[in-house]
Design goal:
Elements: E1 2-13, E2 16-25, E3 30-36, E4 40-44, H1 48-54, E5 58-65, E6 71-76, H2 82-91, E7 97-98, H3 104-111, E8 117-121, E9 124-127, E10 130-134, E11 137-140, E12 149-156, E13 163-170, E14 173-179, E15 188-190, H4 193-207, E16 211-213, H5 217-231, E17 245-248, E18 258-261, E19 265-266, H6 269-275, H7 285-293, H8 304-314, H9 316-337, H10 339-350, H11 360-374, E20 402-412, H12 415-422, E21 430-431, E22 439-440, E23 446-447, H13 453-470, H14 474-491, H15 501-524, E24 528-533, E25 536-540, H16 546-572, E26 580-591, E27 605-611, E28 614-620, H17 631-645, H18 651-662, E29 672-675, H19 689-694, E30 704-710, E31 713-716, H20 726-742, H21 749-754
Parallel strand pairs: 3-10, 12-16, 14-15, 16-19
Antiparallel strand pairs: 1-2, 1-8, 2-3, 4-6, 4-7, 5-6, 8-11, 9-10, 12-13, 13-14, 17-18, 20-25, 20-26, 21-23, 22-23, 24-25, 26-27, 27-28, 29-30, 30-31
Helix pairs in contact: 7-9, 8-9, 10-14, 11-14, 12-13, 12-15, 13-14, 17-20, 18-20
């Protein structure tokens, strides 16, 4: 029978440890697999006698080696909790421990080479409606699961001291539980709060979801439910087999709260979207619903607490419908956004549970340790090492500001993974001393010239990505791209077992050398490079038409790839996996100046692109794409650039735009949105505008502060008491944007306001 592992944990029964795997089978039955397993770790063979004097422990000789080629011995513990104690004892006595920090259940999955989808065979019986397999045969297979996802949402009193209603929603299943003394349409009336909470637990466990989700689920819904259940002497038993849910609530905005309930995944859909790199203006449910579904909440409140109270007392039917809509929206959003499917795809790639696929360091561990094991190599345990210095970053060329025609963008595909594979940058192949035949990086780090573990992992992922592209599976292709691009960051982190400053700097050193050499090669072909950034070169094509520019872009990309193919083979005796491609052509292109200087602004530009026969304005790094600028600034900049790229008059537009602003036509676009990076009361040395606004709020419910600049300074959107300060928006939002463009004709925003005769910038 095929199945998918959603959760892995362990229990100690009769002094023996067992791995517990929970999941869903292809016939839609939930399953649990119980497997006896022994915890272990490694030490050097030469340290065994010293270890035996410190603690009596079972040992087993192996043929395994560490990165330096030294033989290791396997030490077997009685219980998983013994391993960290033994490691502490041994390391305090100078004995190095290997792979002593791997979670016990994850250790089993790595050793069995299981990544989520399995073939399960063996005897089973039913316990608590779950099919339980005892020590079954498990094999890795390819299988896409259909998981049961349940969204929950609660409505409470203003101080969250009482729960009024709880809704549950899934694909083909909806239920609203509400405190009411009469029958309601499509809702289950409950006579008291205690009855409501008990009915909720019964319904949830009866539905038996694999994944429990919601919006702000852990910090609000589950936290409140746990507190109210305790009031009646009850527990939040939402795990399989009525297991208790454990909450870890983080007060710091920068850290995510967690919830664990055995046998189920609990994940906040807001975090699911962030983990899928889905950027929204803010992460409120209303915003996400409008973005993905073009619909929103059924009620728009002015005073939510007061209006919820009124609905509960006078119109419970409306409250039930509102409550259910919120739960329903979450299910529709994660389906429409593909965020959950992406998490499943990443889980299948890495072997990480769905709620931990964004943990890049753990994902690298999962893949690397598996591959190392197949090669007879053990990995070091994680030991946090303070960075002695920062990793030196990528090369960013000083831009040449101006307005250009037909600018080509040439990109290296997956540059860092390509560098790792091309030059065999791998922790197991790293050497402090460089000998003949080794690959020597520009920072003098050396690597054995062979097929290392990490390059091998990347190569397999490339093969999978190409296969996904051929079958037009964008989800799989994107998941692989995310994973490969995370490897450098994982190795450059002191929280990684593979952290090594020399290795991290070798990757960025090669990157800098490659991008600089590429610019030189392009110049040799007679073309000007006006900017290069990490993995891209911006080239003035000198073309007279879009078609001619495209042909030049394709030719240059091929010439660069041919250059590296020969260069790498000659200098390093290796195959080049560096792959430059012609990405796009800007028909018109603006490289702005840094404000108040004549130099170019790095990572900031805009251009007119031609896509499928249609023109679009593409903007990078400018105010239009920055979250801390207003919609007013974004609208102004986009329309100004559009006129610039189409040689339309600028001055009349600027003057008319300012006039409309003063008339109040853009008032809805004047909102600033700024994120508080720490708790509001922790801002003591300085008080930025959004914090000043936050301190005028009755209650701060989010770390995203929305405010408007008034004649009395910043005021929160929810509590505006003074007139709008239009002069602030004129000077701080519109003027800088206009000047960044008008400076190329030696004119200013003030000139536009005076109505001078300038019309367009022409072909500057």
């Amino acid at each position: 029978m095929k199945g998918f592992i959603t959760c892995s944990t362990y229990r100690v029964l009769d002094e023996k440890p067992y791995v517990f795997l929970y999941g869903r089978m292809e016939n839609n039955e939930a399953f649990a697999a119980v497997i006896p397993y022994k915890p272990y770790f490694y030490i050097l063979q030469k340290d065994v006698k010293k270890a035996e004097k410190l603690e009596e422990i079972e040992s087993e000789k192996t043929k395994l080696k560490n990165f330096n080629g030294e033989m290791v011995t396997k030490l077997i513990a009685q219980k998983p909790s013994d391993v960290p104690e033994l490691r502490k004892l041994f390391e305090s006595n100078g004995i190095m421990c290997y792979e002593a920090d791997i979670r016990f259940a994850q250790r089993f999955l790595i050793d069995s080479d299981l990544k989520g989808s399995i073939e399960i065979e063996g005897d089973a019986d039913y316990q608590d409606n779950i099919k339980v397999f005892k020590n079954p045969l498990l094999k890795p297979i390819e299988f896409w699961p259909k998981l049961k996802v349940l969204s929950i949402d609660i409505e409470t009193s203003g101080n969250a001291g009482e729960v009024y209603a709880i809704s549950l929603a899934s694909d083909g299943y909806e239920k609203v539980l509400i405190r009411a003394d009469k029958k309601l349409k499509n809702a289950v009336p409950c006579k008291s709060e205690e009855h409501l909470l008990e009915t909720f637990l019964e319904e949830l466990n009866k539905f038996d979801p694999d994944i429990i989700t919601g919006w702000n689920l852990i910090d609000f819904d589950l936290k409140v439910l746990q507190e109210r259940l305790r009031e009646y002497g009850l527990d939040l038993t939402i795990g399989r087999g009525n297991a208790k849910c454990r909450l870890r609530i983080e007060k710091d905005f920068m850290r995510e709260s967690r919830a664990d309930a055995e046998g189920r995944i609990i994940i906040d859909s807001m975090h699911l979207l962030r983990g899928a790199f889905i950027k929204l203006e803010d992460y409120r449910l209303e915003t996400a619903a409008r973005t993905f579904l073009n619909e929103g909440k059924s009620v728009q409140f002015k005073d939510k607490a007061k209006e919820i109270e009124q609905m509960f007392k006078k119109n419970p039917q409306k409250l039930a419908e509102y409550n259910l809509q919120d739960a329903r929206l979450v299910i529709k959003i994660i389906e429409k956004s593909n965020a959950l499917n992406l998490a499943i795809e990443r889980s299948l790639l890495t072997g990480m549970p769905i709620d931990r696929v964004s943990a890049s360091i753990a994902s690298l561990d999962s893949l690397y340790i598996r591959e190392a094991k197949k090669r007879g190599i053990v990995c070091p345990s994680m030991n946090y090492i303070e960075k002695s210095s920062m990793v030196k970053g990528a090369f960013v060329m000083e831009p040449k500001p101006g307005i250009y025609d037909y600018v080509l963008v040439l990109d290296f595909k997956s540059l860092y993974p390509s560098i790792i594979t091309t030059f065999n940058i791998d922790p197991s192949c790293y050497s402090e001393n460089c000998s003949k035949g080794m690959v020597k990086a520009p920072n003098n780090a050396c690597f054995r010239n062979e097929n290392g573990i990490l390059p091998s992992i990347i190569h397999k992922l490339w093969v999978s990505r190409d296969a996904a592209r051929k079958r037009k599976d964008e989800l799989a292709r994107y998941a692989i791209k995310i994973l490969m691009n995370s490897f450098y960051g994982a190795m450059a982190s002191p929280n990684s077992r593979f952290f090594n400053m020399a290795i991290a700097n070798a990757i960025t050193a090669f990157s800098r050398e490659i991008i600089q050499n590429t610019a030189e090669e392009i110049k040799k072909k007679g073309y000007e490079v006006i900017y290069s950034d990490t993995d891209s070169c911006f080239v003035v094509s000198k073309a007279k038409s879009f078609e001619e520019a495209q042909a030049i872009g394709d030719k240059l990309a091929k010439q660069v790839n041919d250059f590296y193919k020969n260069h790498v083979k000659k200098k390093y005796k290796r195959e080049s996996f560096l792959d430059m491609e012609f990405d796009k052509c800007f028909v018109k292109f603006l490289m702005p100046r840094l404000r108040k200087t004549g130099v170019g602004a790095k990572k900031r530009y805009a251009g007119l692109l031609m896509k499928d026969g249609k023109e679009t304005v593409d903007i990078t790094g400018l105010e239009f794409v920055r979250g801390d600028w207003t919609e007013l600034a974004k609208k102004f900049q986009y329309e100004l650039l559009d006129r610039l790229f189409h040689d339309k008059p600028l001055f009349p537009f600027i003057a008319e735009f300012v006039k409309k602003m003063h008339k109040g036509e853009f008032d809805s676009r004047l909102v600033y949105r700024k994120t508080a990076r720490k708790n509001i009361d922790e801002y003591t040395k300085t008080t930025p505008p959004h914090i000043k606004a936050a301190r005028k709020m009755e209650k701060v419910e989010s770390n995203i502060i929305e405010y408007i600049m008034t004649e009395d300074g910043p005021e929160p959107l929810s509590n505006i008491k003074h007139a709008i300060d239009y002069e602030h928006y004129l000077k701080k939002q519109l003027k800088p944007i206009a000047d960044a463009i008008l400076c190329f004709s030696n004119q200013t925003f003030e000139d536009a306001m005076k109505g001078t005769s300038q019309q367009t910038l022409g072909n500057y």
